[in-house]
Amino acid sequence: MRWAPPALLVALTLAAFMPTLRNGFVAWDDLDNFTLNQSYRGLGWPQIKWMFTSAKLGHYIPVTWLTLGLDYVLWGMNAAGYHLTSLLIHAGGALALYFLALRLFELARPEAPPLDLRVGAFLASLVFAVHPFRVESVAWVTERRDVVSGLFYVLTVLAYLKAVAGRERPRPGWYVASLGLFAAALLSKSIVVTLPAALVILDVYPLRRLGGARGWLRWRVWLEKLPYLALSAITTLIAFMALFTLQNTRSLEHMSVLHRIVLSVYGLTFYLVKTVAPLELAPLYELAVVFVPWWYFAFVLAAITVCVVFRRRWPALTAGGALYIVTLAPVLGTFQNGPQAAADRYTYLACLGWALLLGAAAVGGWVGSNVTRGVLAIWILALMPLTWQQVHVWHDPVTMWQHDVAVYPNARAGNYNLAAAYENAGRYAEAIVHYREIQRLSVRKAQWYVPMGEVYEKAKVYRLAIENFREALRLDPDLSKPACAGLMRIRERTSLSVEVPQVCQGARF
Question: Of 112, 143, 174, 218, which residue is 20 to 30 A from 68 by alpha carbon distance?
């Protein structure tokens, strides 16, 4: 009976994500990370050296690369094998969360019957495991770093509880194990740098090692966090150095402090709303199309007020809210990086607190716990088909960006990625449709005549290709290099008599 809940948890998690085994790599970082990347392929010394000395696409993730190198040894370039590994690691993380939830609920409710505690832990870990928000992290091979770092993150906290729960001094073995697991998590993805703050939150509740009758000036408890903070500080420095190589972080000149605060409020509300009703999830929530209604600000202010005012009456709610904000902090607008206003993958750790809170509410003995269990069961049953459906979105680049454009038709990045996916698939007429849509949405319209000319050239519709290249030259002299190169190619590779403008004469391309 004791092993029935974790066994059912793993089975349901595998079932929810099974369609991912039919998915391939997608042309959104997967191309650079795997299809064109020879360096990670294997577990020999050259590959391991590369994994620990490179920051591919701005991420220093050697432990994650080790799992991907193993994938290549086992599966070669068969995408199904990579997806299977990600799914198994995610299922392992869900299993670890079950035991973490069970331990936390035992600490918070020592008088509760063991069966009730197991039911609460099962529901908490299942909500986390099968929620559609998990799909991007599990079904996108590039985001292997989420599931690997998530597994080590949960194991770090489990080991920490083993070390300190009910003790004045930590158990040395479990404490060192927790630090080792945290180092592995940091080397899987730097987003886990906020874990020391999460441990402090747990020290307050449910461990009750800080605050309340014990007070806040318990120096031994604070000193325990110094090694974690040191590891986080080193990783943060490395992460920023790796990130700056991409040169896509937003400076204060390009994004004001007010804009960053607005974007942070958007993220805090967006993730909660989509957690409750995960509809119209998309691969890319483009910054340019984000609208922040006034009630987002009212909601965040009200939620923080409730958590502060009722911190003694509902300490679990306050702990869950604090954990949510702290874990999301690195990926909110304050440290804006890239074109996205939000991303499903950012919830992999951030929503752990809400999953635990829902599971705790389902533990027997609470007012309305039976109702909570019923509502959670119905909600989870509704989530699983949505997860199944969302997994199919990541099947291939065309399917992925078709879905993105369906959710956000006026997003330039989504239309561009869909046009490129159509072009790479040889579906040139459909690519042109979306290049024209990008042109309609853009301020600088001339630049899009060049890619449209290149698509017409690939489709061997040379008359239209020539017209687009010439239009690019007419509207913007800065486009002379790609436009002239296109005209010269057509003249050299076909029997057409192509009149090349004077600006192109004698140029080298």
Answer: 174
